[in-house]
Amino acid sequence: MSLARDIADLGAVTSRLDTVGGSSGALSNRNLIINGGMQVAQRGTSHAAVASLAFTLDRFSFSHSQDGAFTVTQDSSGPAGFANSLKLDVTTADSSLAAGQYLLMEHKIEAQNLQQLAFGTSSAKNFTLSFYVKSNKTGTYAVNVMHEDNSSILANLTYTINSANTWERKTLTFTGDTTGAINDDNGSGFKMGFGLAMGGTYTSGDTSASFRTFANANYGAGQTVNILDSTSNEWFITGVQLEVGDTATDFEHRTFGDELIKCERYLQKRGTDTSGWEFLADAGQLVSATAFQVAVRFRQKMRAAPTFSYTGNLSDIYMVRASAIHAISSVNMTDNTNGNTVLLTGAVANTSGSAGEQTRMQTQAAGTNFFFDAEL
User: Fold this and answer.
1) Nearest-angstrom CA–CA distance, 367 and 364
2) Residues 352, 289: contact at Cβ < 8 Å?
3) What CATH number does the domain located at 30-263 have?
4) Neighbouring C-beta atoms of residue 151, cutoff 10 Å
5) Is the dihedral of CA 346, 349, 354, 357 positive or negative?
6) Fold of the CATH domain 267-373
7) What does the pLDDT look like over 122-156, one tens digit per residue?
8) Whole-model pTM?
9) Cα–Cα distances in Å, from 296 out to 107, 319, 355?
10) Of 55, 142, 272, 348, which cross-links 278 as Cys (Cβ 3.0–4.6 Å)?
11) What is the spatial distance between Cα 82 and Cα 36, in angstroms, rounded to a whole number?
């Protein structure tokens, strides 16, 4: 290879580094969105009749008030370089939205992860949101970003899907807020909303890349599409990235393992979706012949003390002793204060065992899972 070619290649690399590293960006960990590539789906890959504020794929939820219904799935399609996307499929149409009705996909970012934006100072930095989107419904969609630590002030812009059923990358740049800081804590710093159907109450205002006092009229300003107007409608999104600066760089692909670790700060799952023995908790013991306690040590410190829920049947969950297994009849979380471990207690069929005898909790039934939830 010639020296001239080497110099040219070095120049191209330097230019690329300037693009990524300029405007106070970073070469890695620049994407402030978790699970933007829609890789992780701890709650399952298909969610029918999604309730308002319910989470679907990890870190993405839906807020709505409308008369239709939709299913959200982890889809195996995507633009080149992406194996997954989030797909919304309308199953019951609402072709005539009332003024106060709406449907948005939401994503929240933890406040302490946004400190590099320097909000509330004269050095507040702009930030850029980019994503890939596809739908049979062409037209204009609204996106808003709410600064929750500053009286929920709002910035809102729009994007347009130009070609039906074609992956398109969209880029929106927002202006840094000098008026109010983002708290350095584990609360919600940003709440982002991707408009999919917005009634007239929310569309009569105007757009602004700068944050301003919240007004209903600006919440979905500019949105013309009602994704709910036909059961033929579908909407896909992936490659969601938010980064410091005015430039949208290539999507930061992370390994599945790295993405899962980030997701587990907000949700951790124990159990199995297939048949076969699986641990649901760590070491435990009997506190009597008919009662138990077991500890769960989290793989990642959770954002806050989690809530607890389970799927499947209690009769498929067993306390396993050295000599026998016993189905449980109840389970509750009794200590969840530190985000590192929790204590589960409950009742078990008479084991004839003694207090202090060591046990472990297992299941072999597909779909039997424990969920520990510390979502924003």
Assistant:
1) 9
2) yes
3) 2.60.120.260
4) 13
5) negative
6) Elongation Factor Tu (Ef-tu); domain 3 (2.40.30)
7) 999 999 999 999 999 999 999 999 999 999 999 99
8) 0.92
9) 28, 14, 19
10) 272
11) 11
